[in-house]
Amino acid sequence: MAVSISVVVLLLVLAVIFLRSGGLKVTHALTCALLGFFLAGTSVAPTIHNGVAATANVVSSLKP
Fold this sequence. Notes:
Layout: H1 2-21, H2 26-40, H3 45-61
């Protein structure tokens, strides 16, 4: 749960930065958000979730 919230916050911050810099239009952001909502309802969602969780585990195990 904490990983998905962190990813959502990171993506939200990136979207706001892109919107402010003019690199991302509001319609593009809405399209990406809708794609995410629809993708979450497909059979691919568990695979994506497992991939993000595995990547988070690898990154968290790295020592600087």
